[in-house]
Design goal:
Blueprint lengths: L2 H5 L10 E4 L2 E4 L10 E2 L3 E2 L5 H5 L5 H4 L4 E4 L3 H4 L8 H19 L1
Antiparallel strand pairs: 1-2, 2-5, 3-4
Length: 106
């Protein structure tokens, strides 16, 4: 799931309440502590809370109890990969060209 897709999972208007922590997306929808996707007035579902969790009054294991629903794509993972040209066909082409040059030189 991309960060943009995660934003829609904010717990409002019938949407599920998902939060991301260290690349893992958790479903907090069923928690009474996340009504309408809001936790204690300090955190909103639909966001990456990795940094916020570092200063939370509870341990990380609390969030890890919620169901995992996916992985958060990083910007690098979301970028399309450039196509790599296979090396073997280029080597074969180079050998053929060398042979042709040698034949023509004779």
């Amino acid at each position: 799931m991309t960060p943009e897709e995660l934003k829609h999972c904010n717990g409002r208007d019938g949407n599920p309440a998902y939060v991301a922590v260290s690349g893992v997306i958790y479903d907090v929808s069923a928690s009474a502590l996340w009504p309408e996707g809001n936790h204690e007035g300090a955190h909103q579902a639909g966001e990456d809370l990795t940094e916020e969790l570092k200063s939370a009054p509870h341990v990380r294991a609390v969030i890890e109890r919620f169901p995992v629903v996916g992985q958060l794509q990083t910007a690098a993972a979301a970028k399309p990969q450039a196509k790599k040209t296979p090396v073997v066909p280029l080597v074969i082409l180079a050998v053929i060209l060398i042979v042709v040059v040698i034949i023509l030189a004779l």
